[in-house]
């Protein structure tokens, strides 16, 4: 049996797309019991569930609390649609928020907070690991994210640390503190958007242009004090 | 600084606590996938650690046995990191993780065959060339013998190491697990491995699940594995030994207590 034939057979097997019988019929016999061979796709699937649960813990909890959703089958559905292809282990979750948003179109009962939380967790991972050589302002270490729900309220509530959220839209700055390097998030004010837009070289327009210069100076100082911008 | 004695894995959970410890740590091993192309606190800790301890590197994703082309973009980012930190070699696993573009993130065994020997050895040579560093591969655990297998595992590992002219990262826990799970003779397997190529040892705990032992790095090293480790040290002398702990990660002091116990075994044998 050639190695090429083995690899062709093992790929769908590891992905859980075919069973042991189909694998062996294509790859040839193995001296191991079928149960031992079947251990590998189960390891792959188990690990995908673990990786995503560690990356997005409150997504997992919300799935567990939602009628009609089950973590194991949701992850199976996700990795079948978006098979992991990157060497980075957390990279498995990069597309989860977008996939959940698309899935909600066909499943309107699916909570919007699921995709918001998945996006928040990926944003935090992005800013935590962003390259050090990035300048101040919006980039990988400072992200501006708009959510249709109060995503931080949902997170606190799911952690049993707060009341049910009000579910008004929120715009957040998710960032890595310039000095401590800790990951933080805060609600973005209009003036925060104006300061970050100016820093990116944009000309302010609409309500941003109407903000008084003193307010922008004050906000700039506040963003420095919070570690969003360097001092 | 040269790695000797007994080291532990640099895990983000330990971060700054590790940097402040006064206890003996002979070297640290880091997983490069946690740092390539990334900055932030973890990278700051890594470079801080490099000033204090010798570092060894152990990758998990280069996929030495994969049929897919090597990820040159990743390797081109990895090379400067390794050279910057002054690691003596790159180590990874003798298996495959990616196939047909699908990244399983699992250490899947190859068929132990002559064709797989040639395939893996050619890739290991290529990895070494791209990284401009010697490479050593780890004997992985295998829970099933893949179709197309013609050789025993130890003979396969020997053949790959010889064909690639690379080092062996001898994982004594994996050796023990494989012999236990597949009913192989431990001494005979040890004899067949290319022990003259061992440059680095791994030791870890495992767990029994049904009739299988599973390599989960989540428990203290068993007494049987410590006995095997003593036998390996008797044969090989002072080889840097890494205590792996990746699941059920305990407080740092507990890991350092276990490292002390392994160091005591190493010293007793060497004395």
DSSP strand content of chain A:
5-15%
Strand order of the largest sheet of chain A: 1-2-3
The proportion of residues in beta strands of chain B is 15-25%
The 3D shape of chain A can be described as: elongated
Q: Greatest chain-chain interface?
A: A-B, 49 and 38 residues
Task: Characterize the structure shown.
The complex is a heterodimer of chains A (231) and B (271). With 231 residues, chain A is mainly alpha-helical. Chain A has helices spanning 3-14, 20-27, 34-55, 57-65, 71-81, 96-106, 112-129, 151-158, 190-199, 206-209, 213-225; strands at 142-147, 170-176, 183-187. In chain A, a hairpin with a 6-residue loop joins strand 2 and strand 3. Chain B is 42% helix and 18% strand. Chain B has nine helices and twelve strands. Chain B has one domain: Divalent-metal-dependent TIM barrel enzymes (TIM Barrel), CATH 3.20.20. Chain B has 271 residues and is α/β, with parallel strands linked by helices.
